[in-house]
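Dear colleagues,

As part of the handover before I leave the project, I'm documenting each prediction I ran so the next person doesn't have to rerun anything. This entry is a single chain, and its sequence is reproduced below.
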Amino acid sequence: MAEENNFLEKRVTLFDGISLVAGAMIGSGIFIVSADIARNVGSPGWLLVVWLISGIMTIIGALSYGELASMMPQVGGQYVYLKEAYHPLVGFLFGWTTFLVIQCGTIAAVAVAFAKFSGVLFPWISEQNILLAIGPLKIKSTMVIAIAMIIFLTWVNTKGIVTGKTIQNIFSSIKVIALVGFILIGFFATRHNNSLEINKEIFWHASTIGPGNQTIPLVGFALLAAIGSALVGSLFSSDAWYNVTYLSSEVINPKRNVPLSLLFGTLIVSALYLLTNYIYIKILPLAGSPYGVDALSRGIQYATDDRVGTSAMNVVFGNSAAVIMAVFIMISTFGCNNGLIMAGPRVYYAMAKDGLFFRKVGDINKNNVPGFALVVQGVWAVLLCLSGTYGNLLDYVIFAVLIFFTLTILAIFILRVNRPEIPRPYKAFGYPVIPSLYILATITIMVILLIYKPRYTFPGLGIVLLGIPVYFLWKKFSGNKLEA
């Protein structure tokens, strides 16, 4: 594949790579999903354990991906690893799911989150402000802002990798600095708050919310199932770290810098996420009432609209907290979407070069980036915004992501046997024990989700499997002769 990548410029440094990993990971999830996790596990200690497990899994995954990235520093990253380890069909299923759901669905959702939080500053931007109604289609002001964001960032990234990475570096740096500031404010500004003392009393008393808001204790397998279900939120908030592998052929010294970007980026964000959740339990009681009149009485479990970050800052800054957090989340989601929009088209570009996507998607524009692939991605993300289905699609994302995580880590074992001659400048940490434990953990989570959240998991599996007939139809009608 090296020949067709000659027009892609090597302009991405180690700092740029770390910035992309961190920036793609930090969106709005860290400020929201802890409420659902708290309702699932019911104790501050287990809330932190869920985030700790998520962080460990993310870092182990990144360390393991490093071996594959150093072996095959090609455009498309994970798509290439799966294709080489298994069969072009598996690579296609990853690319198909990435385009259809994972990347474009996330772009749409992050853009709408940006728009919704913009509404805190500009009331015109609201889900209730319907600008145009055409049958069942209702164009809301939030849709307009979300679509404008997608179009703008798509256009910016067609201007070249340097333009895209510069925006990414600026917004990722602001996000990390702001998150550190959030942690420091929470640590020093709430010394007389007794929420931590309240939380210590139930620190390891795991429970869940049953019918009629009854508290049900969790032990044994029930606790394991609750943790597995709760990991959906934390893993989704930690997702997209592997996007840097998509740009491998544009990274300077990729055999070194891609693995290091994965390591440092995931380590920084995972540590910040854990500390942020410690601040939550320092400022807010975990348990609360949905009928509470203020942030403290609602607690983490029932933070208004699940906006735990806003509730925490409300305790510190009062009513101005909503504006402060809205600005921060707008910055966070803007930078997150820039990284997603920049990286995703490299997968479709690699697929097109293999004859598994529209041929024009494999074209490079005058600025040496896959411009048409960016446009195609932007169009689909906009359509998802208009349809409103992105929310449903995102419910299915994490199961599909876990499938490909498992297959990618397993690829390390397969390629060690089948392709031992390929140089491996970096080898997976703790091989074979640590990667094996990662595979076991992801399979366990998938089984739990299949049992306890079938409404989300089976559709996600269905989207992946739907790609199988599409692959064979594509090969038949495109005349593609790609071999395994």
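Confidence is low (pLDDT under 50) at residues 1-6. The chain has one domain: 10-478.

All the best with the project,
I.
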